[in-house]
Amino acid sequence: MTDLSFEELVEKLGSIRGRHTELVSVLIPAGFNKDSVTKQLDAEKSTANNIKSKNTRKNVIDALERIVRYLKTLRKTPANGLALYCGNTSENEGQPNIELFDIHPIQPLNTRIYRCDQTFVVEPLKEMLEVKEVYGLLVIDRKEATVGVLEGNNIKMLRHMTSGVPSKIRAGGQSSARFARITEGMAKEFYRRVAEAMKELFFDMPKLKGIIIGGPMPTKDDFMDEGQLVTKLKDMVIGMKDIGDSDENGLHLLVGASKDLLAEQGIIKEKKVLEKFFEMLGKNPEMTAYKKDNVMKALEYGAVDALIVSKKLLKSDAKKFIDMANNTGARVDLVSADTNEGEQFLNLSGVGAILRYKLQ
Question: What is the CATH architecture assignment of 6-129?
Answer without folding.
Answer: 2-Layer Sandwich (3.30)
